[in-house]
Amino acid sequence: MIPVAVDYRLTQPVALHARFEIRGFTALLGRSGAGKSSLIKALAGLNHATGTPWSGLPPEAREVGYLPQNAALFPHLSVLENVAYPLRGRDRFDRARALLNELGLLEFAARPATQLSGGQAQRIALARALAHRPKLLLLDEPSSGLDAVTRDATFTWLIDTLAARGVPALAATHDPGLAGLADWMVLLAGHKIIREDTPRNLFADPGSIAAAELLGFENIWQEGQTWFAARSTDFRVAANGREARIVRVRPNGGGLRLECAMPQPVVVQTENTPERFIPGATLFLEIAPEKLRRLRQD
User: Fold this and answer.
1) Do 195 and 241 sit in the same domain of this protein?
2) How would you write 223-289 as a 3-class SS string?
3) Are residues 154 and 222 part of one domain?
4) Which helix (H) or strand (E) holds 206?
5) Which of 116-120, 211-215, 252-256, 274-278 has the highest mean pLDDT?
6) Helix ranges restricted to H, 48-190
7) Residue 210 lies in a domain
8) Range of the structural domain that residue 260 is part of
9) Domain end call among 175, 204, 233
10) pLDDT tens track for 152-192
11) What pairing do the DSSP bridges indicate for beta strands 242-252 and 255-261?
12) pLDDT digit string (tens) for 83-127?
C-alpha cells in the first residue's frame, strides 16, 4: 500500500499540528484529551482543519470511511439494512449481502442491530464503512466498550480484514498493547507528533521520556544525567545486582507486583511468591543490558 502523507493543523477543539504518514494499518497512540479523536474527525471532514489531504472538501467528497467510538449502528434497522445504508441503486442489498458474506458475517444479516454483542457490532460497523469502497478507513478508539478478550480478537480481525482488501487505516487508541499490533505507530503528545516508526522499533528504543510513557513503560528513572526506561517484567530478582528495598507488595495474578526503591522507585513483576518478599526487605535486581532503554529528556 502506498503511504498516505498527512499534514494537518487544528485550532479547535484542540490546538494541534500533526505531520506523519499512514502506512498500512497505522495506530495513532496518545493519552485521553491529546487530540486523537479531533484529528480523526478532521480527516473525515467533521472538524475544521487546514492542510493535506482533502482540506476544504466536505465529508461526502472524501474517499474515507469513518468508525466512531461506538459502532453507531442504526438501532431500528437490521444488520443488512445497516450495511446497505450508504449504498445506492436497486442492487444495494445484494451488494451488502455479498460484502457480509465476504467478511464472514452473513449469518448476522437478518439480526436486529440491537441484538449484537460489542465485538459483533464493531465488525458490522466496519462492513458498513467498507461498503462504499473507501481509500482510507478512520477508526476512533475501535476497542472502546469491548472487554479484554473481545478487544484483542476484534482488533486483530480489523487489521487482517483491511490488509486483505488493501485498505490503509488510521486507528486512534490510548492502549499501547493494541497499538503494538499495527503495521506503523504514530505517537501524539504535547499537541504534536513526537515519533513514528514500526511498533518493534519504538518499543525497542522509545527515544524520549514522553514516548516511553505513551508506550507503557512502568519504570522511568534518572541516574546522574541519564534517563532510563524498563518494563516491570524486565527485572529479575537475583543473588546480586542492584540493591533495592521493597516498599509495597501487591498480588498480581499468580505472582507479585513489588514496588521498590533502588533508590529510584521501580516496579518489578515476579512470578515467585516467597515469604521474604515483604515491605522493608532488601533484594537484588538484575536487568539485561538490551532491556535497559536509554532516553533523552523531552
Assistant:
1) no
2) ECCEEEEECCCCEEEECCCEEEEEEEEEEECCEEEEEEECCCEEEEEECCCCCCCCCCCEEEEEECH
3) no
4) none
5) 211-215
6) 79-84, 92-102, 118-130, 148-165, 176-179
7) no
8) 217-295
9) 204
10) 887 888 888 889 889 999 999 999 988 999 999 999 998 99
11) antiparallel
12) 999 888 999 999 999 989 988 889 999 999 988 888 888 888 888
CA distance 273 to 121: 42
Find cell 459483533 and name the residue. 120
In this structure, is residue 264 part of a structural domain?
yes
Q: Are 104 and 136 members of one domain?
A: yes
Do 285 and 182 sit in the same domain of this protein? no
Say if residue 142 is in the same domain as residue 57.
yes
pTM (two decimals) = 0.88
Same structural domain, 285 and 174: no
User: How many angstroms from the chain centroid is the CA of residue 44?
Assistant: 19
How do residues 236-266 score in pLDDT, each as one tens digit? 999 889 999 999 999 888 889 999 999 999 9
Q: Is residue 209 part of a domain?
A: no
Query: 28: closest CA among 4, 1, 56?
Result: 4
Q: What average pLDDT does the structure give for the chain?
A: 90
Per-residue confidence (pLDDT) for residue 250, from 0 to 100: 92
CA dist., res. 71 & res. 179, Å (int): 19
Residues 139 and 16 in one domain: yes
Look at residues 262, 263, 265, 257 and name the one whose alpha carbon lies nearest to residue 285.
262
- pLDDT > 90? residue 297: no
Calculate helix-pair angle for 118-130, 148-165, nearest 10 degrees.
20
Here the cell at position 129 is 464503512
Q: Is the pLDDT of residue 145 over 70?
A: no
The total domain count for the chain is 2
